Amino acid sequence: MSAKQQLINKIGLRLDGRRANELRRIRCKMGVFSQPDGSAYIEQGLTKVLAAVYGPHQTRNKQKAQHDACIINTQFSMAVFSTTDRKKRPRGDRKSIELSVLLQQALSAVIETDLYPFSQIDVYVEVLHADGGIYAACVNAATLAIIDAGIPIKEYICACTASLANDDVPMLDISHQEEILGGPTLTITALPMSEKIVLMEMSQRFHLDHLPKVLDKALEGCKDIKEILDEAVKDHVSKIGSATGWANASS
Amino acid sequence: MFTTKSFIKKNKVGHFLKHVREHYLRTDISCGVPECKKCHSENTSSLTKPSNSNNCSIFNYDHYLILDTNIILDQIDVLEEPIISNVIIFNTVYKEVKHRSLPIYKRLNTIIENPSRCFFLFINDHHKDTFVPETAGELINDYNDKCIRQAIKWYIEHLPNKKFILLTDDTKNRQLAIADNIPAYTVRDYVQNLDKKSLIEDKLSRNDLHSASEEKELFPPHLNKIELLKGIKEGSLHQGVFRASTVNFLEGFVNVDDIKEPVLVQGRAGLNRAVDGDIVAVEVFSKEQWVSPSEIILEDEDVDEQEVEEKEEILKNSTVLESEIKPTGKIVGIICRKWKQYCGILKDTSDLGLYQIFVPANKTIPKVRIQTRQVEFLKTQKLVVTIDSWPRYSRYPHGHYVRALGLIGSQQTENEVVLLEHDVPYSQFSKEVLRCLPKLPWLITRSDEEVRVDLREFDICSVDPPGCTDIDDALHCRPIDNTDTLEVGVHIADVSHFIRPGTALDLEAASRATTVYLVGKRIDMVPELLSSNLCSLKEREERFAFSCIWTMDRQANILTTKFCKSIIKSKQAMTYEEAQLIIDDKNKTDAIAQSLRHLNSLAKILKKRRLDQGALVLASTEVNIMMDSETMEPLDVKVKKHFETNSMVEEFMLLANMSVAKKILDEFPDCAMLRRHPEPPASNFDPLVKAGRHLGFDINIESNKTLAESLDKADKSSHPYLNEMFRMLTSRCMLQAVYFTSGTLQKADYYHYGLAVPLYTHFTSPIRRYADIIVHRLLAVACGADRTYPDLLNKEKSTILCQNLNYRNRMAQYAGRASVAFNTHFFFKGKLNDEEGYVLYVRKNALQILIPKYGLECTLFLAKKGETTMFQYDEERQTQSADGVTFHAFDPVTVRLQLDSSNIQHEKFILQLVKPIIRGFSVPALNDLNDGDRTESNEKRKSDEESGKNNIKKNRK
Amino acid sequence: MSQTIHIRTASQENRIRPLPSSQKNHRIFTPGEEVIKAAHTNFVRGHGTYEDDGDLKASVAGVKEQVNKLISVRPLKSRYNGQVGEVLVGRISEVQQKKWKVETNSRLDSLLQLSSVNLPGGELRRRSIEDQHMMRQYLQEGDLISAEVQSVFTDGTLSLHTRSLRYGKLGQGILVKVLPLLIKKCKIHFHNLPFGVSLILGNNGYVFIGPPINDKEGNEGGFVQNLEEVVPKETREAMARVRNCILALAKNFRMLFDTSIVFAYEESLKYNVHELLLPEAMVDVAVLTQQRLSMLENYESH
């Protein structure tokens, strides 16, 4: 009866061939740039994001400097070629500013800012290709970049999207196609190890009855993502470590 | 677990855009064959049950069938036969079917979902081994065929000891498949070698275009898709929905969005094989070539080519009226066919050949040529037929027989036809639905009592038509002590207590949307246990209700309004007549009588106030058909009687609906389900204004108020039925009232034109209307008695629901009328009566006559076929005159009524003029011929009728 | 000279052979991971860790280091954390009263007190108001200096000094920034390489490549800068080659010290200077250097 397209077919596969609880393929790489202190590149399906972290460094703007904590400065931008319709400008529009703020809030939750008085950490994320779950990919990329920069954080911070397929089945990691065809999308940013939710965002109004199951699914997704990121981090660290011969390591 | 494959898609949205999508290939897709050990089979669908095997005489082994897209699209009727089983559908095919035709896709889904049919959907495009990448420049069809062959090859390798057979009508694909060592056949070859072939073969769709060149091409060719799109883009062509005229088979209209008036298309070349409902491309002529719609009635009788041409000639000559000129054009191509299945019968011929002509019951649908080997049988049956194609050389479209409904003329068959034609779901309630019902005996528990207001002591009574078993409203009224105010309560059956959102019962009810009333039959929206028992507010039974309680002063001003869920116990269930008697009987002074009198006096005030605001009083020819309870034959046809109590109940229902509408809109400004009645465009009133002018009345259509006033004035004492006729005509000018979701429209559009109220909804008949259930749920949330659920607050969902409700309601209304019409015909079979009637419309070659006694509307042709008419038609004044007699609209006439059963499907009334006498045209009155034997016998019957009454409750407006 | 343009896709780059890695395997901790469960009073929380519900958890990705009771997790990559006595290369970012601020790749800008520099005219000269006014003439924003960490303040700010003839303002040359962890801690950070290039390996990851230093001059505390002097082309080429070698080693996470750079220089001679920027060449140089270093190591240990 519903005019909306069925997002999960009879066999339980989604339009792109995934099952409801499967993430898209995640590929990530840390230390992609040499200039910033930390950098990372992540692909979640076709969504591709670069992140770079500078700092902590001396706050250049004296007024902003805090004597008991460092400030986190984030900038979200989308490459003009990242969407099917060419964007007019990469940053500065309302959506970008909003996402910058959301990212800043998410990162403030994990970075141990009190260790760095009078300092500043700059986080730049750039979406190279948008195919759904942009914010989630940005958070994940920023996490990797921050870890790469050696900035202390409480734990991984991961973000994941979830939605309802056929108004019934919760599904994970929504692609752009599913975002358009399906109902409201829930984006959560969470600390997967302590299962704390940092940030939640809905794209549309959503009935409360559906929320718990979608939320659970999204949290599950965050945990899955954390596992993947963790592996990448360990891989990266041991690569540097072994190349330098664990130099300067005392043990 | 998965690998990715992204591919590039070009999409045209104004300009070219590149789309990249992921495409995951998996290793965990099961082949579906139960014996297969390589795949971990899921329990979703197992292909074979031991009882099922395919037997086809071409092969001596059991096998699995694999279908090409074209087979499913063209031969879905064959596939619906249970003899075809063990079929593997590839996802490539499945998606293509969905893309090409949604109705067939839905039917395919029903087959797949039926486990006994053993259809299995194999997701070949996400399977690691069966995925084929697209090569550059490949046509999509070739690609799909390649996918199918690749998947079959995989199957053959995967299960070497099973046989797989590809059915395809695409020659190229078949040859390629055979080259790949895949056994491939056409459907025809396959089906002809099946058992029981003679029956199933009829259902094969006929796409074989046989030797077209020999025959004369009757129709101009259609433009192809690209030309059409180009034309539409450039503005030289217009896209629209084709609507065939119901009276003239050579005429129709195309409703085009960007042209205000519908575009007229005429003649066979103009219509160019469009069938009612198709989306077509139309070319509009330049203004000089525009003509007016012919006001003649032409039927597609069985005539040869020449006569058709003659008819076209007649048509041409009758379309030169200057004043009535409409945009005219011709159909140059079909954008989308909307062919459905059609009910009808075979044309009666002595020819028992392979090819037969099928006559659809719906007059807007052309006759269809079908091929059958069971003519003898089919001739006696009502059939369902679908159209396959309409080649240029063929006068009629080609189709094939789908199924037989039953004997022609039997009431059961006719009822089924009515239901089928109007898309009314009438199957039995499924087990799952019945499982949702409460168990009997049903008792009111303490927890129920806690949450409900106890109104059991109140003197509540219900007033309904006789024989009504689904009582959904009851009333009470009592003076409040020490004040001069009254407490008035409307109690509506609490159906939403039993029908919980999301259950099978709820879904079924939502899909049915309304109870359909046919003559002698009721198609319930909810199972009988609810409709006639637990929900019905029966006399002296404790029932759950949703109450709306007002306090009013004696001038019927509402002081307070309260809504609550309650428990009531109706003291008395009355008919309108009984209630009327109680009110009128001065000796009765019990509580019920008192409260009825209060209600009645309040209702009168309410009604007056409503009318003052501009509410319209409309008339329609609703009739009751008295049925013999045993033979189920109609005994008499009568126009419904109205009592004061009818309008008493009606007033309070309106009041309740309005109060509820206000409440739910306040609470849910975005998603309240309301009902609106749009103001009809002024052009709709043309016939009314015209008719009024001829009789010297000025009908002011500026607003509903002025209209109501001018209707009141349009009365002549010499012509008692005149006012009624005006009102009847007015009701035909109206648009349909519709349900809508409040968030989707501007506030000004919420207006209910007919009732002249700014807000209206349906609350009072939840047993027979689904909209009321939704309103109940909204109201329950609003007054804290229930909680919301997602779909209730979802604007899009509600809108979709509203569309379904509106569609079903409209169809239910049509079905009801069709049923009445059929039974009226049945009643008149073999009778010959003279009846009084009135001219409703004057047409160019006929008069539309209304016979109020039976609510019948028939056509009186002014000339016999082939003869020239002796009447003079005055287009300007809308009159026909001959022999010194002039017919205007609303003129009284006497006509002889006879049922012409020569055409068994379209039995129609033949009218002959009795009065006024026109020499050479009218016939003498029956009474003069024989001394009224017939009328006497009729009267005798009337006295019996009470016993066999079977009344129908009709929508209260 | 026709220019060749080298294009390679991301996937091709991955085909470059991985470098032989050292066998030692370290346990890597990642943020949020428990380092020690229920770390009562037996341990002292060090850098890169935090306490959560009595457990000691890592807050960075790195390896565990334990000094008696002090447990810390050290991230391999991070900003420079200075220690007293380390040699730095830095850039003046601000001139303030009595001090300069120096950007040294550490978290906060380092300080160079006016009192910690050798001013012309004797080491023990009193600092006068005039000197304060003259500060910008000694060092101004953008100047590169070499210095040594004198002390570390509580907030992590480094205090520098240049009270040695080795330190001071740097002249013509190339600055290369690499990860601080790649600089091997040695006794000597000033090198005069055999092929006519001088090198300062700052512990903060800033490496300065200059023309050879003539020890006989420049005793003035290094506040002069001769930008007029033309460095011969051979020297410039050698400097560029050293720079590219350092980049090659850094890109492949090889430690930087005099031997490794000399080896890399020698191995790189088969390439033109500009060819050294190709990823293949960089890997090649790094691998060959690594092999020679391990041969040397084996030789020494025998």
Automatic annotation (TrEMBL), chain A:
A GO biological process held by the record: nuclear RNA surveillance
Domain Exoribonuclease phosphorolytic residue range list: 22-152, 156-221
Matching Gene3D superfamilies: GHMP Kinase, N-terminal domain (3.30.230.70)
Domain of life of the organism encoding this protein: Eukaryota
A Pfam family recorded for this sequence: RNase_PH_C
Location(s) in or outside the cell: Cytoplasm; Nucleus, Nucleolus
Gene Ontology CC entries for this record: cytoplasm; exosome (RNase complex); nucleolus
Keyword Protein transport: no
Database matches in InterPro entries: ExoRNase_PH_dom1, ExoRNase_PH_dom2, ExoRNase_PH_dom2_sf, PNPase/RNase_PH_dom_sf, Ribosomal_Su5_D2-typ_SF, RNase_PH
Keywords: Cytoplasm, Exosome
SUPFAM superfamilies xref list: Ribonuclease PH domain 2-like, Ribosomal protein S5 domain 2-like
Predominant place of localization: cytoplasm
Assembly and interaction partners: Component of the RNA exosome complex.
Described purpose of this protein according to its UniProt entry: Non-catalytic component of the RNA exosome complex which has 3'->5' exoribonuclease activity and participates in a multitude of cellular RNA processing and degradation events.
Family: Belongs to the RNase PH family.
Name of protein: Putative exosome complex component RRP41
Record organism: Hypothenemus hampei (Coffee berry borer)
UniProtKB/TrEMBL annotation, chain B:
Compositional bias per record (Basic and acidic residues), positions renumbered to this chain: 931-948
Region (Disordered): 929-957
Family as reported in the entry's similarity comment: Belongs to the RNR ribonuclease family.
SMART domains: PINc, RNB
Source domain of life: Eukaryota
UniProt KW keywords: Cytoplasm, Exonuclease, Exosome, Hydrolase, Nuclease, Nucleus, RNA-binding, rRNA processing
All copies of domain PIN, residue ranges: 63-175
Descriptive protein name: Protein DIS3 homolog
GO cellular component terms, semicolon-separated: cytoplasm; nuclear exosome (RNase complex)
InterPro entries reported in the protein's UniProt record: Dis3_CSD2, NA-bd_OB-fold, PIN-like_dom_sf, PIN_dom, RNase_II/R, RNase_II/R_CS, RNR_Ribonuclease, Rrp44_CSD1
Annotated PROSITE patterns: RIBONUCLEASE_II
Subcellular location(s) of the protein: Cytoplasm; Nucleus
An example Gene Ontology molecular-function term: 3'-5'-RNA exonuclease activity
Domain RNB: from-to ranges: 452-785
UniProt GO BP: nuclear-transcribed mRNA catabolic process; rRNA processing
UniProtKB/TrEMBL annotation, chain C:
Domain of life of the organism encoding this protein: Eukaryota
Alphabetical list of Pfam families matching this protein: ECR1_N (PF14382), KH_6 (PF15985), S1_RRP4 (PF21266)
A single GO cellular-component term on record: nucleus
One MF annotation (Gene Ontology) recorded for this entry: RNA binding
UniProt record, GO biological process: regulation of gene expression; rRNA processing
UniProt keyword list: Exosome, Nucleus, RNA-binding, rRNA processing
Subcellular location: Nucleus
Domain (S1 motif) ranges: 85-163
InterPro entries attached to this UniProt entry: Exosome_cplx_N_dom, Exosome_RNA_bind1/RRP40/RRP4, KH_dom_type_1, KH_dom_type_1_sf, NA-bd_OB-fold, S1_domain, S1_RRP4
UniProt xrefs under Gene3D superfamilies: 2.40.50.100, Nucleic acid-binding proteins
Family: Belongs to the RRP4 family.
Name under which the protein is recorded: S1 motif domain-containing protein
UniProt source species: Hypothenemus hampei (Coffee berry borer)
Upper lineage: Eukaryota, Metazoa, Ecdysozoa, Arthropoda, Hexapoda
